Amino acid sequence: MGKNVHLVSLGCPKNLVDSQVILGGLALQGYNICEEAGEADLIIVNTCAFVQEAVEEGLETILDLAELKTRGRLPRLVVTGCLPQRYGKKLLTQLPEVDLFLGSDGCRDLTTRLDDPTTRLVITRPSFLMDETTPRLITFPTHTAYVKIADGCDHHCTFCIIPRLRGRHRSRQPESILGEVAQLARSGVKEIILVAQDTTAYGHDLSAGYDIADLLTDLLTIDGPDWYRLMYTNPEGITDKLLTTMASSERICPYLDVPFQHSHPEVLRAMGRGQPEFDALALVRRLRQAIPGVWLRTSLIVGFPTETEEAFNHLYRFVAEAAFNHLGVFTYSPESGARAARLLDSVPDKVKKARRNRIMSRQKNISRTLNQKLVGTCHRVLVEGFSEETDLLLQGRTIFQAPDIDGVVYINSGQTQVGHLVEVKITAAHDYDLVGEIVEP
Ligand code: SF4
Question: DSSP string of 78-146?
């Protein structure tokens, strides 16, 4: 019998792909995946560390799992990803319970590092890129798969330490992505979600001017996946060619996740984002014109140094006028190592929170109004299983809803199977979620 491994994946879907690569390597070594940490011989925490909240969540998770050592079981505890990449040696004394720390490239060679009991910390400059031959174990759900098309970032947003943690932008070869997607299609995956730190930068480092639009066009030649979804599109990287390609096929979700971060020119300048003439609202209009019916998600930061009351009001008006379908707001926190940390954190926490609440309460009304317009209309829904609220309802997502971050559709009538695409008539709308019944299995 092989050994048992228990893995906790924190942070974003890009990290989840790394976690699945770690599990793929371990499965080849004969490890069984176990859900209970208490039954594991090896515990891995794949961490995120891009803001303090994520760091704290990582530390809490590690300390909770380290408790198992004091309760008699002695599983090996390994911490991988952005937390060791960010804090390196400091963690050796801070977390003596941890047997091995590996940085952002930990998923590359974790299996061989495990055999070397003399090393407790390995941090290298991130350079790893998986390819179609990299073993990867997709756990639940199996009808949706994230595909990492690039890693790293060449932008210099002043609040962000991701380029330090994940390295320079590097794109996978198109053949490698197409090969992986073809394999996923053969295994029955219905929804492919393309991820990277900035998917619009895809191909910039490849020869022959191949870009994200070309990749989408080539992906459409693969039979199988019903939906291709594009995440993390940098506002200034969205080209007319990309929009035309997206509008050309029903298999590309009319959904764009565009992290605007702010709308006020002075704040954007201080954030190191956007050319002086960049007009966020004009871009929203351009997106809606190019892809009729497109659903838009964005993320924003409030309370950045230099965000005056006037700059915040600019952002508030932008949110009201843009009427995003999905929106997340972070309150700014200075991150050690980020250039903005040298600016005086001038907006008091109370004001940051109040600004966040004002935007979220405006957004709640917008989201409810947009959802209500869907009542009586029919949409294809990818069924994901029982609802997290109650086993009496099924739960799924429309083409407009990405997993984990957007709302869901609760299905209260009709029968189907997990992983199926069914036609659902929307019968009720809540602030973020929808309710419907199956009209065509
Ligand atoms: S685009 Fe900016 S915010 Fe996004 S990962 Fe790159 S540096 Fe960070």
Answer: EEEEHHHHHHTTHHHHH-TT-SEEE-TTHHHHHHHHHT-TT--EE---------TTS-----S-SSEEE
